[in-house]
């Protein structure tokens, strides 16, 4: 099982899933380009370029086929991989991923991307969007703050710009994705919404939706037991659950 994190994060963001699934699977969490220990890819790179990077990663690791789970930007990459080299993807888990943002959401994310070059990495906005005020989210919030504060600004800018403009890159490909595909998000996620997950699943022959009630964007950290249970179900499925 390969895990791909979102913009501004690093492979440690998957810690609860690594701990759970390493007992039953070979688990590989990878730092996205320009994050953690991974080198940047060129400025101006698109989601397609990040998908190509992931294909090279599979080649370098000599992985013929794998279960792929991606969160946020990692979801876009994993979805692009399922569309581009389907024979290498056993199952796909698309966590808190975006799909065809409405005009207001698209304008907002493009504005945030444009502001990075002049204002740097925004550490406050994501925390407000991604977390509620509940005590159980406090630890995840502080970890996320530290990762955002430590991210390479240029690597972040490259990835976020690709993320901001990438919600439609593979949007028409879902009917051709035939592997078991889980679309999971939090009920309170304002940007990767329930409606997006439902729309993608309805277009994917073997896709289904799971919503984590009461949580927002970082559900794998704020509701790890629930997410792990849903991912465990996903790992046993040859077709979508009834």
Automatic annotation (TrEMBL):
**Where does the AB hydrolase-1 domain lie?**
2-229
Chain coiled-coil ranges: none
Listed A to Z, the keywords are: Hydrolase, Plasmid
Highest taxon above the source species: Bacteria
Instruction: Read off the Pfam families from this record.
Output: Abhydrolase_6
| GO molecular-function terms, A-Z | hydrolase activity
Which is one Gene Ontology cellular component term of this protein?
Answer: membrane
Database matches in PANTHER family: HYDROLASE, PUTATIVE (AFU_ORTHOLOGUE AFUA_2G14860)-RELATED, MONOACYLGLYCEROL LIPASE
Full protein name: Beta-ketoadipate enol-lactone hydrolase
What species does this protein belong to? Sinorhizobium sojae CCBAU 05684
């Amino acid at each position: 099982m390969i895990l791909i994190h979102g913009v501004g994060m690093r492979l440690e963001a998957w810690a609860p899933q690594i701990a759970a699934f390493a007992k039953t699977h070979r688990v590989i969490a990878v730092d996205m380009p320009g994050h953690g220990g991974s080198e940047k890819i060129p400025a101006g790179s698109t989601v397609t370029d990040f998908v190509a990077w992931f294909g090279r990663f599979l080649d370098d690791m000599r992985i013929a086929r794998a279960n792929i789970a991606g969160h946020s930007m990692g979801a876009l990459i994993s979805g692009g991989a399922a569309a581009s080299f389907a024979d290498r993807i056993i199952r796909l888990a698309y966590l808190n991923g975006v799909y065809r943002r409405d005009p207001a959401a698209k304008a907002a994310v493009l504005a945030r991307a444009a502001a990075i070059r002049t204002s740097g990495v925004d550490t406050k906005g994501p925390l407000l969007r991604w977390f509620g005020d509940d005590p159980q989210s406090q630890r995840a919030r502080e970890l996320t703050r530290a990762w955002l504060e430590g991210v390479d600004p240029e690597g972040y800018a490259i990835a976020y710009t690709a993320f901001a403009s990438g919600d439609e890159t593979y949007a028409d490909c879902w009917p051709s994705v035939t592997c078991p595909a889980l679309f999971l998000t939090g009920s309170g996620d304002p940007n990767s919404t329930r409606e997006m997950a439902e729309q993608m699943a309805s277009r994917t022959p073997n896709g289904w939706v799971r919503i984590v009630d009461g949580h927002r964007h970082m559900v794998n950290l704020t509701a790890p037991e629930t997410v792990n249970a849903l991912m465990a179900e996903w790992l046993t499925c040859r077709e979508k659950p009834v």
